[in-house]
Design a protein that fits this description.
Elements: H1 31-42, H2 45-57, H3 61-89, H4 93-101, H5 106-140, H6 146-154, H7 157-176, H8 178-206, H9 212-219, H10 228-242, H11 248-253, H12 262-290, H13 301-311, H14 316-350, H15 354-374, H16 389-417, H17 419-425, H18 433-443, H19 445-459
The protein binds tryptophan.
The site of tryptophan (TRP) has 17 residues, from helix 1, helix 2, helix 10 and helix 14.
């Protein structure tokens, strides 16, 4: 049931509380539905595709420790901050920042929308690979040389561009359904299934002959590989995986009413996302060593290694197909959270209709995805700093734009909202000590840590 938000929070009352003036803002149907939707946003290609290869490129165990430390300090604090902003303002990132902080803060919202658009564009390319893998495994079974099969596939735009388009069309279709009909329902039963297969895969991978070297790589930190790069990559991976830094969680928070305990919900989302990443690491890294591959294979890692694991399992092609179908769906529940902030912005601030806006933005993001799709094939030689378009957009967003967004979000909640944010933090424990610790993390350590990492990285 929609309820007009109550204004005992110290925030100025807003005209209707829904930003669009007319229609009441849609809200999540249930508390658990919100947690599933937010976890659905977080769990996606970031966990299964990105996390294992980034761990592989950054020294294994050391990276894992730094990553976990960042997730459970900065990550969870910023996720709570975003949800608080969204629920307090009941509107899209631009409108929320402007309503709560004044006109200049709208810039923070715009930065987020640009990040969302760019990530959406390359995200659907990798999600397209996933769709293609589901289809090829089902119809043709395993390739004799998975590494060569991956190379050949990504080098063929006539295959990669259409599947990216199909994935974008699916994203648009779900977002068209609106919050409850589309986003919430899809998550409810698919997530547990994906977890089950990830666990089965992990069990298979760690029992492969030769897996122990991979386990050691993943779990026994070699501190000699630690450097500023470890910090930057872990920070970027944390933001990307948790879906924070661009206002996706703000937007999902704007569909919350006051019944939800935000810190507890954030704890669930962060916990589930981290579990999924850790399992994906167990499913992939031991298998990399067992198959005699290099952990520094890069963005193709999961797509090369997982087929080799499935090939050793009974009913491997069947499991493999199911896995890539579920991963495509996990990617879909993430990509909708990239499109939704943009759509919410145009609905709230420009009073446009959901239908037209969703289709238009989806199409534009698809056009931008074409260079990314080409970058592993015909455009492989167009590189900047040694990176092709997809890698470059990924590094720019995860490495710089999301952390910059997170830095501003921390300052915004810490200093602009200040104690008012605590009233919004968790109704049952207003002014608890925990809330003050959270606020002080946002005020000083979070901005300093992020700024320090960004500056040190820029100086290199
Ligand atoms: N977290 C998602 C993943 O791990 C990707 C994603 C969805 C995202 N929404 C986001 C990343 C918002 C950053 C911000 O696959």
């Amino acid at each position: 049931m929609y309820k007009i938000p109550t204004f005992h929070t110290g925030f100025p009352p807003m005209s209707t509380g829904n930003g669009s003036g007319m229609r009441p803002r849609e809200h999540w149907a249930s508390r658990i539905g919100f947690i599933f939707a937010a976890a659905g946003s977080a769990v996606g290609l970031g966990n299964v595709w990105r996390f294992p290869y980034v761990v592989g490129e950054n020294g294994g165990g050391v990276f894992l420790i730094v990553y976990l430390a960042i997730v459970f300090t900065l990550g969870i604090s910023i996720m709570i901050a975003e949800l608080v902003i969204g629920r307090a303002a009941q509107r899209n990132p631009v409108g929320a920042c402007r309503a709560l902080g004044g006109a200049p803060w709208a810039g923070l919202g715009y930065l987020g929308l640009v990040s969302a658009f760019v990530i959406l564009s390359f995200y659907c390319v990798v999600a397209g690979w996933t769709l293609n893998y589901a289809w090829t495994l089902a119809t043709r079974g395993f390739a004799s040389d998975p590494a060569q099969a991956f190379e050949a596939f990504v080098a063929s735009p006539s295959q990669t561009i259409p599947v990216a388009g199909v994935f974008m069309a699916l994203t648009v279709a779900v977002v068209l359904g609106g919050v409850k009909g589309g986003i919430e329902r899809a998550n409810l039963f698919l997530m547990p299934l994906l977890f089950a297969i990830l666990v089965a895969l992990a069990v298979r991978a760690v029992t492969l002959p030769g897996a122990s070297a991979g386990l050691a790589f993943y779990l026994a930190p070699d501190f000699s590989t630690f450097g500023i790069g470890t910090l930057t990559e872990a920070l970027g991976q944390a933001f990307f995986s948790l879906s924070i830094g661009l206002g996706a969680m703000m937007t999902y928070g704007s569909y919350l009413d006051r019944g939800q305990n935000i810190p507890r919900a954030a704890g669930w989302v962060v916990g589930l996302d981290t579990l999924a990443a850790i399992f994906a690491g167990f499913a992939i890294l031991p298998a990399v060593f067992a198959a005699g591959l290099s952990p520094e294979t890069g963005p193709g890692l999961a797509f090369v290694v997982l087929p080799t694991v499935f090939a050793t399992m009974p009913f491997g092609a069947l499991f493999g197909t199911l896995f890539f179908v579920l991963l495509s769906i996990a990617a879909l529940t993430s990509s909708i959270s990239l499109l939704e902030p943009l759509v919410a912005y145009f609905i709230d601030e420009h009073r446009l209709r959901r239908g037209g806006v969703t289709v238009a933005i989806g199409f534009a993001a698809f056009l931008l995805s074409i260079p990314s799709a080409l970058s592993l094939g015909p455009w492989a030689n167009y590189t900047v700093f040694g990176k092709g378009v997809l890698d470059l957009l990924d590094a720019l967003t995860a490495g710089i734009m999301l952390p910059a967004g997170g830095l501003l979000i921390a300052l915004f909640v810490g200093w602009v909202l200040g104690p008012r944010a605590i009233m919004e933090f968790d109704e049952s424990s207003e002014r608890s000590r925990f809330a003050w610790i959270w606020l002080w993390i946002l005020r000083i350590p979070a901005p300093i840590a992020i700024a320090w990492i960004l500056i040190r990285w820029a100086m290199q």
